[in-house]
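hey so u asked for the seq, here:
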Amino acid sequence: MGTQQLLESLTNEHLKSDLPHFDVGDTINVHVRIVEGEKERIQVYQGVLISRKGRGIEEMITVRRIVDNIGVERTWPINSPMIAKFEVVRRGDARRAKLYFLRDRIGKSRRLRDRRRGMKHVEGMKTVH
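ran it, structure tokens below
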């Protein structure tokens, strides 16, 4: 067994199995666990998924939202224990793998189209990222 296969076999038990299917361009809710002293609460961060990189235990996502006309981006490991769950709010139609061009957009040009009716069959397919 090679080194890469050995590492993957060790980290497979830490992968989350309850992830919904979401792609770049989708608007998602990320439920993040916030620990303040001895208290723990869940904070929801809603934004557009602009990038997804890595694979396996190292997979990261970047979510962008606008707060008081300022763009805020946060990056998380998908399999982090600090993330309680993901929810897909809206499916966006993106034709690129990374949506970094949204950083330069303001106003209505910042919006992405909804996924068209003709692409409904894509939603049911399970892909490995």
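The radius of gyration is 16 Å. The longest strand covers residues 39-53.
lmk if thats what u needed
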